[in-house]
Amino acid sequence: MFTGSAIGKLMGAQPMVEMFAKWELRDHLFLIGATELISALLFFIPRTTPLGMSLLSAYLGGAIVTYMQNGEPYFVPAVMLILNRNTGDWDTSLDRVLCLSTEGAKFNSPAHRAGKDANEIISPDRAS
């Protein structure tokens, strides 16, 4: 859904151009489309899914505000925002992607992915 919408913006599809002109955002059509596409692609890459979810949440928040400012119904982006926000373990998984916590660093480590203790990966030849 996001990728199709983004491509429509990037290609300058007439309905998109008209809608953005009505909102006085025509000059930002390409930037918004590129942001939407990058966010959607990050969402589909397993390692960057939390980052993609964060960016898509911000994007949808902006869409809701735009609809509200122009007196248009904003039910669809609001529902999409709720569904996006409830996709997975957002609060902790973003920390893992960005390595904001030591747990995140462990999660992203080669040892964790291999199912081993970090000491086994770092020094496998050490005898204790």
Walk me through the topology.
Layout: H1 2-10, H2 14-22, H3 29-44, H4 49-69, H5 75-85, H6 90-98, H7 102-108, H8 110-114, H9 118-122
Helix pairs in contact: 1-3, 3-4, 4-5, 4-6, 6-7
What can you tell me about this protein's structure?
This protein is 72% helix and 0% strand. It contains 9 helices and no strands. The radius of gyration is 20 Å and the shape is globular. It starts with a helix and ends in a 6-residue tail after the last helix.
Shape: globular
Helical fraction:
over 70%
Characterize the main sheet: none
Strand content is under 5%
Order of helices and strands: HHHHHHHHH
Give the termini separation.
55 Å
SS elements, strand count: 0
What is the averaged pLDDT score?
77
Find the structural class using helix and strand composition: mainly alpha
Radius of gyration: 20 Å
Number of helices: 9
Low-pLDDT sequence parts: 90-94
Number of domains: 2
